[in-house]
Amino acid sequence: MLYWLTELSDGGDLFNLFRYITFRAGGAFLTALIFGFIFGRPLIDVLRKRQGKGQPIRDDGPEGHFVKAGTPTMGGLLIVGALLTSTLLWARLDNPFVWMVLFVTMGYAAIGFADDYAKVAKQNTAGVSGKVRLLLGFLIAGLAAGWAAWFHPAELTGQLAFPVFKNALLDLGIFFVPFAMIVIVGAANAVNLTDGLDGLAIMPVMIAAGTLGIIAYAVGRTDFTEYLDVHYVPGTGEILIFCAGLIGGGLGFLWYNAPPAAVFMGDTGSLALGGALGAIAVATKHEIVLAIVGGLFVVEALSVIIQVFYFKRTGKRVFLMAPIHHHYEKKGWAEPQIVIRFWIISLILALIGLATLKLR
Questions:
Q1: Sequence-separated (6 or more) residues with CB below 8 Å from residue 177
Q2: I want to staple 324 with a disulfide (CB 3.0 to 4.6 A). Which of 20, 96, 104, 303 is the partner?
Q3: Half-sphere exposure (CA, 13 Å, Cβ side) for 74?
Q4: What is the greatest pairwise CA distance in the chain?
Q5: φ, ψ for residue 292 (rounded to 5)?
Q6: pLDDT tens digits, the chain, 360 residues: what are they?
Q7: Angle ∠(274,280,283) on CA atoms, nearest 5
């Protein structure tokens, strides 16, 4: 919205700053951060009052989690609110990729909110049917995938780009949309599975968002794409503003989610943020790089898949408990120890993902 202040500029005044994506990204970060600090405590107070007993705790979970009973959920509303406000304020609203990512984020936030509401209202961990959640998730992802394919350059439409290998493209044709749907839905559910300890999911999400934001900015500039030998996708640079808002909103939320958490993000936040990461990867043609940058989320999801698959066939478990962060809890690791080590792993994977921009 503020981008239109450039129309008042004569090229050498304050209004000219709004032409620069990096300046507006900084504004989005600060806006989202301040939003989080201002509305965080009031939102928590309202959630605690309305929810009573808070988020239900699994009976079969680690014993240390029972002390968290009564902690309110739906804290993702704080992140999504900060993200939406900052993006609408600082991004160019004529950019299709900004709206595509916002559409996925808000759509998945709505699904997560319905699930959180059902859990709190019924005071059990069932929530909305998994089949219904997946169906709605795939519907939103399908619309977003078609949206992205429509606005991708003609030479990249339906193509899967590979990191490291210069100019390597795989023509998926009509199968690009189903592939992109799996990326978005998979990312959303992987982040959802990771959100099991105080502060565990939000920091890796911010790290991944920062990395994807840099990638989006790079692939949206011809000078950068020519230097790095990556595919140019016009318009994706504006996604950096969305990512900056996500980081600012995430930090505002982490202020209250740091152990011991005053609020959980719930599915409202985890599904929305995971879906956003998947949508950014699809928009920028970096779906495979997302698997590297978000490698922690991939491992968390795989641990659940392996556990269920192996248990159904043998009656035995590979892990003491899945997702894998609960396995380490069962082994006696302290919660902060797991969280910080997983943060470190996320940072390392993000740096590897960024390195793919230059390794050609």
A1: 142, 145, 146, 149
A2: 303
A3: 23
A4: 72
A5: -85, -55
A6: 787 777 776 666 678 888 899 999 999 999 999 999 999 999 999 999 988 776 776 665 666 665 677 789 999 999 999 999 999 999 999 999 999 999 999 999 999 999 999 988 887 777 788 899 999 999 999 999 999 999 999 999 999 999 988 778 999 999 999 999 999 999 999 999 999 899 999 999 999 999 999 999 999 999 999 999 899 999 999 999 999 999 999 999 999 998 889 999 999 999 999 999 999 999 999 999 999 999 999 999 999 999 999 999 999 999 999 999 999 999 999 999 999 999 999 999 999 999 998 886
A7: 140
Residue 298 CB: number of other CB atoms within 10 A? 18
Give the ranges where the chain is alpha helix by DSSP (H). Answer: 21-51, 76-90, 96-122, 130-151, 176-194, 202-219, 222-228, 239-257, 266-284, 287-293, 295-314, 324-330, 335-355
CA distances 232 to 35, 152, 167, 217, 344, Å, are: 34, 10, 11, 10, 31
**DSSP label of 352:** H
Structure-token match 């719930």, residue found: 266
| Torsion angle of C-alpha atoms 9, 97, 39, 260, degrees rounded to 10 | -140
Rg, C-alpha atoms of the chain: 20
Give the domain ranges of the chain: 96-240+254-355
